[in-house]
Every structure is written in structure tokens, then in C-alpha cells.
Amino acid sequence: MQRKSTPLTFGLIVIVGLLTVCPVVMLILGSFSQGLGSFGTFTLDKYIQSYTDPAFAEIIVNTIIFTLGSAVVATLLALFLAYLNTRTNIPFKFLFRIISIIPMMIPHILFAVSWLLLLNPSNGLINLFLKDVFNLSSSPFNIYTLPGMILVEGLLDLPIAYLILAPALASFDVSMEESSKVCGASNLRTLFMVTLPILRPAILASITLVIVRSLASFAVPSVIGMPGRIYVLATHIYRIIATGFATDYGMAAAVGMSALASSTILIYLYRYLTAEGDKYVTISSRGYRPAVIDLKKAKYPFFVIVAVLSFILIVLPVLVLLYTSMVPYSMVPSARAFSMMSLRNWTEVLGDPISILSVKNSMFLGIVGATLGVILSIFVCYAIVKVRTAASGILESLSFLSFSFPGIVIGVGFMWLFVRTPLYATIWALLIGYIATYLPYGIRPLTSAFVQIHAHLEESSKVCGAGTLYTLRRIIIPLLIPGIVSAWILMATMFVRELTLSVVLSRPGTEVLAVQVLRFAEDGLWGRLSALGIIMILISTTLVIIASLTGAKFTKIQTVGGDEPH
Amino acid sequence: MDIHISKLSKSYFSEGRRIEALFDVNLAIPANEIFTLLGPSGCGKTTLLRSIVGLEIPDEGEIRIGDEIVFSKDKGILVPPEKRGLSMVFQSYAIWPHMNVFDNVAYPLQTQKKPKEEIRDRVKKTLHFVQLGGFENRPATKLSGGQQQRVALARALVAEPKVILFDEPLSNLDAKLREETRKELREFLTKLRITAVYVTHDRIEALSLSDTVAVMKDGRIVEIGTPKKIYFDSDRSFVADFIGRANLVEGSISRVGINHTIVDTSLGPIVCRKKKDVSPGDAVVVCIRPEFIHVKEKAGGEGPNLFSGRIDSLIFVGDAYEGEIRVGDTELIVRVEPTLDVKQGDTVALSFDPNHCSILLK
Question: Where among B212, B237, B262 does a domain terminate?
Fold first, then answer.
């Protein structure tokens, strides 16, 4: 077994290495080159050109404020929610689980658009409503600002921060708080003097990861930032390659290097913090139930805050899109608005050949891409978890590498690569780019599935008289299915909504949903955008439901094996 | 069914070092007995068990189960585990988490493609036997540790295997449950009259469950015997020390008598049980178990092996005191009756019966 599998590990290292390292190498080469068509002679021109641009300093400042701001907003909100959920007797705790999984359901670009439809200064619904009610001459809110971007990005990254902070709070050894109270400290004092300091590594980890995510974020900077002329690194790169007459992939690569470098450093910091976190946050083996603080009468106001947050995060974007897709132009919901409702935007979208093409392309990428991605992930996880040679460590690092790559930057790297191959401007270029960039999303759930299959479970089947195939069919595959299903769902939903890589790689003929949504946003066609957005959400949701049902059905057949007594 | 193992060796490389997991192991496991492999962790006992069941492939030697050779290096025979017709209870139980209790237990019969009615009846009977009647439709992961252990046992028993192998099956249970399950297991196995090979590092488990115990160290079998023989009359100081608390006093043979052998030690001469094949001058170790050292408040009395010493420490542990008594330069651990009126610093008299002083080879 060991000897047979070594070629497998090396083969996978080559494949995953090609997928993840190649674009980075091409990006570096590209940044020192003269042009996309031919590398030309080694030159530092692009670096000098991009980093001496007088506007560049402002972009860096914007990027720092945007990423840090989003990190603070997301982490504070997540801390508040995680504390309420794990440590208080707030009612309806199931809401918290919903908050932690919504990013799968609503694509970021649609979330950003729905906030724009609510808060833009010229015809944002909330602005129009407030102007009507209070007879204001100008709009009270303007979303096309850094605070507007930070608010929306912060809300988008809230689930990630929550997923880091909630387990840390749940595994917290309460006796440390109790001893503080015994010493005479109040609840509030204990929170600030004991609880938060002990959670510091988890809080810092959350801030770091949100910074990485918002640095890579393209939806909010493009939909909200660009109309307000607020550029961050991601949109600056986009401006260099996608607007104007002289697109310059060399400069994009040179600018991208700084985003890639900061992102990689931050991911290392994140890993260091989470490793440290294990030392700090005392995870007790005795299965403590954390002491629950009775909120008493404050219970309901707190619950209202959580309910409003869930509404804002989940229901509101969909409602706004649905409403906008039906009305001819932006207007506050009223009897008149409802009387003017029609399906005109829908028929226009369904009659638009490019929109239809983008639906087809995204569905193809979602279904075929996720399937191929999951198959690759299965082999990689098998090599990492079950074969476990020294080379497996290299494979593991390689396959998580792309986690720290900002999509648009790696897209530029892929551009330098694909332009030299027949893959350029084909759907396969997008497919390869997607799988390379989102490989960690397939590997993570499958790794835990493989880890769960203890060697004893297989051996026990053999001792019971089962051959290799029988063991595979009755034991290994059924145990892997939940992992395969979650990996497939994660990858498929990511691919259907993919934006940052696609804005670089998508060419005429290979339009995808999110890029088409962005085009509508750039043209201000909000009605059609909303209709296409709803279609996008429906496709994701359908894929999730079909995958879950197939997984459940398959597991059931295998488990019962038709032998259960009735 | 009996198991014969001859000249079995297995080594592997770990971190650049060659580790001999088994070295020239020869063993005859008699049929219908509970045979225990006992030893500290890393002694090769689990490797030996896994070689019998077929999950490890030895480098050298031969394994015969009943009349069938299942492994032979020289004859080029290797029967895969699924064809050996054995069953095994794993340390982790290896209960399949995606199946209910019925499917877990029915699995070995399903692999044999038995008719459904027969499977149902035999699973029911077996579950009843391990006192899990009515648990058929429970998800296996929703059971307690002790119940999972019994599901694993039921799965091992259901196909009525020739031999059943146990790999530290009780080590994941808490102390109290471990004690109860040990008694249950003994009962089950005695009722079945089945050949059982049991691996453990727990000496109480080995002594209380087994008909025969084989003590292993560094990939070798050190000693084989009944629990009583191993406990009272071991030949090796490693075994005597591993199997229970013991005072091991070094000395040399001074005289070989008709009924007893006398050993010169740092305590003085000790009259020991007769040992064959030793002659005056041989370096040996005298083993005296703490429970066989009698402690009295005052010196006096008659007979061999009378000493006096000072109590260095005395700890009350409920049913007795555990004490350390210094005799000359030698510290002896003793068990003192809780009713005895002594305290730390007292000088007391010690005596031990020559029949409970055994001579071990070094």
C-alpha cells in the first residue's frame, strides 16, 4: 500500500503544484516583463510605474481603512453574537446557526447591490423614504463612501468571524470567570478583565482573517466603491486591466504582488495565532457546560437586535432584489409602485442572449467544476490523511496555498499563463482557475471525513470476512458521502457566484453570472440585475438541495443494504 | 481451535530506526482457553495479535490455526484476514457510525450471504446473549461506551468464529465500568468455551480473565504460565515486577537445602522456596510481595526470616496502610493491617514465610 501510493502522492503534488504555484510564478514573471504577449527583457519598469503613481498612496490608505474597518465591524458584531449565543439564555438560538451559514446562499455582489439599492444618495429606497417622511432636501445617507463600504463588507464577513469566535467562546473554561466573580468582580468587569483578554488570540485571528478576505474582496469595492471613486487595491488592478484603452497586465501583476505578499503574511499570522490560541483558550476535557448568564428583562431587547441582524443579513437582500426586479424604476414601496409591477425586467433578462449564456456557463462551471474539484480533493485528502508520507506534508501546504491568494491577483497570474495556451478565452480556463483557487473548500470537509474513517473501521470489516470491494461499498463510501456532499455544495455554490477571478478571465463567449451582474450594475440596469440575481440565488439553492437529497438517499441505500428487519 | 506460532519475526523502520516488534516468537495457544498476551506498551503484543488475524504481515515464520496454515514465509502462504474466519474486538470497538446496532452485528453474516431470516434470528440471539436485546434499531453511535463494547463483542460472536481476538477491549472504559465488564466478559467466554486471545497491558485484567498468560517484552515472549504461576512463581524479575507490587532484593545463593534455598542479601540471609538448577554463588533476586510480609508491633517469635526495621512512611489507603520499612539500607514496601497500632518512626518486627519468597534469575 505504502509503496503503491507514493507515485500517487507525487502525481498529486505535480497537479496541485501546477494549479497553485504556476499562476504565482507567471504573476512574478509578468511583473518583471514588458507585455502580456511576449515577456521581453527583464525590467523593473512596471514596478516603478505603478508604485510611483501619485494616486497610489491614496489607494493604499483606502485599502488599509477599508480592510481594517471591515475587520473591526465584523469581529465586534461576531463577538457580540457569539457571546449572546454561547453564554446567555437568549431565546431562539437556532437563528445563530442560520447567521453562520448564509454566505452560502446570497452571493456577495447581490448583497452589495441590495444595500446600494437601499442607501444610494440619488434613489436609494431608504433615502427616498426618509426624504418623503421628513421633507428633507437631500439624502441622509450616502453609501458611496468608505464607511458605506466598510458597513457592507463587515456584514458580509460577519459569518467568518462568527465561525472563529463561537467555538473559542464555547470551549472557554468558565472557572476562570467564576474565580473572577468570587474575587468580587461584576459581570461586566469580568467580561473586560478576564473573558476578552483570554479570548485575545481568537479575536486577533478573526480580525486577521477578515482583513485577508476584505483585501481579496471585489464585489463591494466594485459595486459600491467605484461609483464613489473610492479605489482599493482590488479595484485598482481591475481598472488597470479592464477599463480604458491601454490595459496593462504587467502593471496589474506588479500591483498584485503587494496584495499577494500582504495576504500571504497575514495568513501566516493567522495560522500562528490559531496555534497560539490552543495554548491560551483552555479547552477543558471534562465537558463543562459554560455557565449561562441570565439576561432577565434585557433578553428581549437583545433578541430584537439579533432578529434585526438576521433580517438584514438574510431576508432583506432577497426582498430588495425581488422588489426591484418587478418595478420599472427605483421607488418607495407604495400602492402606486405595486400597481406598476410587471415582469418586464424578467422577460428582458430571459430574452438577453448574453444573460442566458452566462446562466448556462455558470451552471456548467458549478456542476462540472465542482464534480472535478471534488474528485481531485478526494485523491488529495486520501494522500494527505491515509498515505501520510513526508511528501504528503508538501501536498497539504500546496493545496491550502491558494487560500491566501486574492482572487483578482491570481486571476492576473492565470491570464499570463493562459494567454500562452489554447485554453485562453475558453470556459476551461475559468474551470481550471476556479478549481485551483477554491481547492481548499473541497479539501477541508473531505479531510475531516477521511480522518473520521479510523483504520480500525476498515480492518474490522476485513476481519468480519468482507473483501476490499465490499468494504469500500458498505463502509468507506457511505462514511465519505457527507464529506463529499458538503465539499460539492461548497464548491458548486462558490463557482456559481464566482466574481473576482472571472472578471479577469471571462471573455466574450465565456460570460458568467456574477460578471453579467457586474455589467448590469455598471450600466445601472437595476431591474434586470435583480432578476438575474434572483435566478442566481435560485440556481445555487437548487444545487444545494439536489446535492443534499442525493447524498441522503445514497447514504440510506448503503447503510440499510436492504437487510434491515421490518 | 488451537493456534501454533513458530519463529515469527517482524521489524519495521520508524524515524530511521529499526524496531523489532516481534523476534523469533514461538507460541502454542491451546484450544478453548482464554490466552492473554500481557506486556508494557510497545512490547509487540498487538503486533502479534494483528499478525494472527492477518492485518500485519510478519517478515519470517509460520502461523497455523487449527489445521490450516494461514501464514508461512517459507511456503509462501498468506491468507487475507477476510478468509481466516476469525473475529476481533478492537480497542476503539470500530463500531461503524453510519449503521444501527442490527447492521453492525449482522455484518459478518451478510458477508457470508446467509438468508435474511437466519441473519435476523442469529443477530437477535447474540444481542440477547450480550444483554442488548431490543437495541437493534438504535444508531450505534448513540450507545454508551459499555454498550458499544458489547455491540463489538456481539459482532465478534455472531458468526461463531473459531477464534476470537481482543485488542485491549476494556481500555476505553472508565475504572468502574471496566471492572464490571471484565466480570461479564469472563462469564461470556466461559459459557462459550471458545478460543480467545486477549491483549492487555493491565495485569489485573490478565490475571482475572485468563487461563494462561504470556508475558512479552521487547518483541519476545518472556514467560508463559497460569495466572497463579506468573504471580507467585515467576522465573524472571521483569515478570514479577510487572505483574504486581514486589520487593526485589538482590543477593547470591549461599546454600541449597532439601526443602529451601538460602540467599545472602543486604537484609541478611533469607530462607526461600526451593529453586532448582541453582548452585551456591549464583547471583539471584529474591521476590517478596508486600502482602506476604507480616508486620508486628514487637520483636519476638520464632521461625525463619525474622527482621526488624523502622517505619519510614505510612499511608492509609482504606483497607490497609501502605508502608515503607527500612531494614538496614534496604527499603521494603509492605501492607500493614489497618488495625495495627503503629506510626511513622516506630521500630517494628517483620517476618515472611519462606514459601512466599521466590528466587528469580536476574
Answer: B237
